[in-house]
Amino acid sequence: MYLALARKYRPQKFNDLIGQPHVIKTLQNAIEMDKLYPALIFSGMKGVGKTSASRILAKALNCVHGPASEPCNECEICVEITEDKSSDYIEIDGASNNGVEEVRNLRETVKYRPMKNRFRVVVIDEVHMLSNSAWNALLKTVEEPPEHTYFIMATTDFHKIPATIVSRCQHFEFKRIPYEVIQTVLKGICQKENVEISDYALYLVSRSSEGSLRDAKKILDQSIAIASGPVEDKDVIDILGTIEEKIFIDLTWSVFKKDRKTILEQINILSERGVDLRFFFNEYLKFFRDLIVLKSLEESDGLHNLNPEHVPDLKEMLEDVGEVELLRYFNATKDLELTMKHTENPRLILEYLFLKLSYFPSLTAIEDIIASIKSGGHSSSGPMAEPTPPRPSGHRMPVMEEYQGPAIIPDSQLKSMMVDRMQREKPRLAAAVETCRLTLQENHLIIELSNDYEHFANTLRLNADYFKDLIFRLKKMQVDVEFVMVSGGKKEKHKAEIEALKSDEKITGLMNTLKGKIVTIENVKENIEGGNNA
User: Fold this and answer.
1) Which of the four pLDDT bands, split at 50, 70 and 90, describes residue 384?
2) Model confidence, pTM
3) Which of 270, 382, 491, 515 could, after both became Cys, cross-link 469 (CB 3.0–4.6 A)?
4) Using CA atoms, how far apart are residues 132 and 166, in angstroms rounded to an integer?
5) Spatial CA neighbour of 117 closest among 55, 171, 35
């Protein structure tokens, strides 16, 4: 019968236990000093070495060369415990032996001296599954065990053990094993087994185990079986059902570059491959969390789950992206978590999400705009925006009757080109420019605004840098921008008509007769005959 890798390469000495140096050192020192506590609790997640440590401790206590800090694994007693043939090493499952009767039988057994070994070692696995009555029956025996007996209780749910039991035991917490350590162990196993496998495949196996070495060995076993030869990356990906990290990277690049066509194509590929898009969404959320860790911390090794081979490229990708911006991306993604979970069309939501994210690089934080205004600068969301010197307080546009000068490009053509682009980028600004006359003379852009539309003046002035950038994108020209307020428009005519009505003899005569005054004049129109109506 085939021996699974988890059993074949099970630790047989304390030094073989990986990722638990604090446990190893304490147990070895306690054995050497003859101060080992008679009741121990080993807690921690599955597959980190709790049961293996129990067997090694039993061998170290009973080895013919011991008690020793390391068992010899060669004497008869060590071999019997390794092969689970020792009558003095008792290992029971707390889940299936959780009743009070089983505990009573155990109490009767430990009363007698060991048949062969120096000490009897009782290991209760998943001890948190014991019933309340079983705990009560075990309490006195754990507190005052026979001098020839050691109790070791292993559990994955330490908080379920009664406080009365915990207070009578020494507690050892087994840590989650780092994936880098697991990867190194798996690489050594593959070399011994003559298995060809890439570092990336080992990385995927190690990361998927989530700190459990036993699970990692199980997945490696399955990968070797499916490959029936050299283990390919695709074999591991198929087994794990994971998403390749490169897919996340490519999609994120497309978002940062605002390449919306590629975004839709990539999501379409995922859909055609039959990838669970809800699972993809959750994995992408974890990926983005790792990006934030990578960007925020100078020393982030061990704090993220990114493939080390991809880290240099990821750092380059994030070079021009701020930490606050990454948090904005993460929050926008997190906000759709419930929607993604309950939607009947996950592809539609996923497309909406990434298209939405692709507009974020064009946004300017409101804090930056406020800071710019307070400092007297101008705000612009254009990619080539440059700060302009602050204008003096109380500055107004110069008043000119009309700007005279030859234009390189006819103002109607230039205006059409700019408005067409602004309608996609800044629709409100496009409406303001529609009311202006534009002239481009050499490297000088003159924007003439009638005082009829004076309310647009501030909007135009604040977007001076945007106009520079837009001209550069359209004509590859570096230009200066000048704003000119033109008088003599409808507003001036309107004022003149009002003044004429106020001085009209008929109106002034009527006002004197009634001893009244003019409060307001509305609906001023020019009569066809040239007269005025009020």
Assistant:
1) very low
2) 0.58
3) 382
4) 14
5) 55
